[in-house]
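Translate sequence into structure tokens.
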Amino acid sequence: MAEKITLNRHDTDPSREELLNYGALPSSMDEFAYFNDIPSKRLVEQKRFLSGEKRLPNFYYQRLDRIYDDFQTGDMKDMSHEERFVNLLDMKGSAYKAIGELDHAAETGIDHAAEYTMYADMQEKNLNLIRLVESAERLREDNSDLNRLDWRNANERCYGVFRPDYFQAILDGSYKEIFNSTLLSELKKIVETKYASELSAVPNTPDDIYYDSRQIETICNQAIINNGMAAAGVAVEIDNTVTNANYSRPDKKLLLPPDLHRNAAETRRLIIHELRHAERNLNGIKTGVPLLAEGTANYLEAEEGLNVILECAVDGNFDNASFDRAVERYIVAGFALGADKEGHSRDARDAYEASWPVIAKRLAGNVTEMSQEITQKAQERTWKHIENAFRGTNMHMQGMIYTKLKVYYEGLVNNMSYFSDNADDIDGALDKALIGKYNHTSHDECELVKKVLDEQD
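Result follows.
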């Protein structure tokens, strides 16, 4: 339940339609946009950092200068004045108002109490993201102990507490016990049967044959025809503005970057991953509950984790780029926070120097001699995770990281635990996970969603 807030109430309580509006806008806050520097500047700083020319990069997050100013959002075509400009203070005030009214409705109403609780949780998440941006701005202006504590607390409110035991398990290799091949084999059988029609759109060609974006667009279009998504309004499109394939909920489009190149196996993984975003969106729409179509407060890590596990199931192993990326991010977060045996937090440079040899060893596998190619690859990959971890900060402060990067690995662990707990009915567990965009790995959220759906009947 979201925090209790006292407000000057309306003369009359808000209507059902007004309360539903609070659940129809789940993604009004994008904290990541405030932690972005100019791409050309980032590239220059990367080269200087990796070459050793600079000990620490020098990023400047321009939008933190004007967090309370109006700024234009999105494509202005066909937008009203209200849609074109968003103010952080207005967003914060709206979130407080929404939480108060939704909590009041949930506590005093007979109908839809669970649904209003779900919406209040979403609004609280938005409010916490706003507080995170405010904390980043304060920390940049004054890195006092008080502001550092505030930054850590703000991150924990948004992304939870880091798990040192998960980190240690990665370092000593025992994490592999969680990702067991027997469970994955069972899931593989189910996925291959359940999604046979969409996967049949991918040609059965060797790994050295690659397809370009137009060919992949054609394959994906056939996949959504085969599985019925095209009839439900889903489309596939090459978009010059995206750098990675992603499913856009508002217009039901799978967007592909123009420079995309994938072989058949990689294309299967892309399809199984991105079309599960679409499937949860479509199933959520069918429930009539806006947040199950758009995403509840903590759905993201559960959904990303699920989709990566399904990618692994298609291949029958955990040798997967998305899986590796999640593990590597956790490694970097662990060293930055001082979760290793040395026990001291690190700035960006020290976290980098501690992390890249571990990542290089993972890349090398059974190879005993570390090649220059592996070393360079590990350092470049580690840099990306370092930039992600310390985004929004000056990178000089030890342990002051933006902890969103940790949730992706936790999403993998939670999904494997979810299927392990439901090993007697993995097929049913997968169906349950796909009813909408929610955190299916959380018992409390599953119970809440069940109550919400019961309220709709």
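Note: The chain is about 60% helix and 5% strand.
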